[in-house]
Amino acid sequence: MTSRTLAAIFLASALTLTGCKHAAAPETTTATPTTTASNLPPATPAVDPATAGTITGAVKFDGKAPRASPST
Hints:
Shape: flat
């Protein structure tokens, strides 16, 4: 192997190993949370059926469909 190849392998190995360091364990606290699931607002607002609507229809195109490009 050439020195350039060995240098590339070493660099790739060093970057891989430095990216795999374990993070320090998070500190634990004894404080109680101020919010619980019972006092949080709902994830989505309620829908009023009297004011809600529906959408219907179809989308149509005229002419020949474009040719799909090959994926690489």
